[in-house]
């Protein structure tokens, strides 16, 4: 179940937070994704901002004091905390993303990164079984 691997100490911001401040949060907390939440309900997801979004904003001269909502992804891909790791691997591959928001009863639970998955041998075994691959510890791609 992906919930046991998701980081529950989620870095959150409001849609009105500046792009600069979100970039600062990412740097200080060492994360690649910030979850935007409703100011009235900090467990209701309204968007996400990834490192890629911030880099694009810089590349296209978006004002860094603008609200992060202007560069956020508002259609957020989520998975429930009790879904299998193979489902998360499938989502990462299908959408070309590195993070997925994990929910519990449709409320913010945590964030799972592709890095979280590849650190765990048990997850690699589960994904391998799902895709009918053979996994051996120490094997490389």
Keywords summarizing the entry:
5 helices; alpha/beta; 141 residues; CBS-domain; three-stranded mixed beta sheet
Strand content: 15-25%
Quote the distance from N terminus to C terminus: 24 Å
Named at the architecture level, the CATH assignment is: Roll
Shape by Cα distribution = globular
Number of domain modules: 1
Mean pLDDT: 88
Which secondary-structure class do the elements indicate?
Answer: alpha/beta
| Radius of gyration computed on alpha carbons | 16 Å
Q: What fold name stands as the CATH topology?
A: CBS-domain
Structural account:
- The protein is an alpha/beta fold.
- It is 33% helix and 24% strand.
- The protein has a 3-stranded mixed sheet.
- Helix 3 (85-95) links the parallel strand 4 (78-80) and strand 5 (99-104).
- Helix 3 (85-95) crosses helix 5 (121-131).
- The protein is globular and about 45 Å long.
């Amino acid at each position: 179940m992906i919930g046991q691997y998701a980081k529950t100490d989620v870095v959150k911001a409001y849609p009105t937070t500046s792009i600069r401040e979100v970039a600062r949060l990412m740097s200080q907390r060492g994360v690649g994704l910030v979850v935007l939440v409703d100011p009235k309900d900090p467990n209701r997801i309204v968007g996400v901002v990834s490192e890629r979004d911030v880099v694009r904003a810089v590349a296209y001269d978006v004002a860094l004091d603008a609200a992060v909502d202007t560069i956020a992804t508002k259609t957020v891909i989520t998975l429930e905390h009790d879904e299998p790791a193979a489902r998360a691997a499938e989502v990462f591959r299908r959408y070309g993303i590195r993070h997925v928001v994990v929910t519990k009863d449709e409320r913010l639970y945590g964030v799972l990164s592709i890095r979280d998955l590849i650190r765990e041998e048990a997850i690699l075994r589960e994904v391998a079984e799902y895709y009918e691959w053979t996994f051996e510890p120490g094997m490389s791609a």
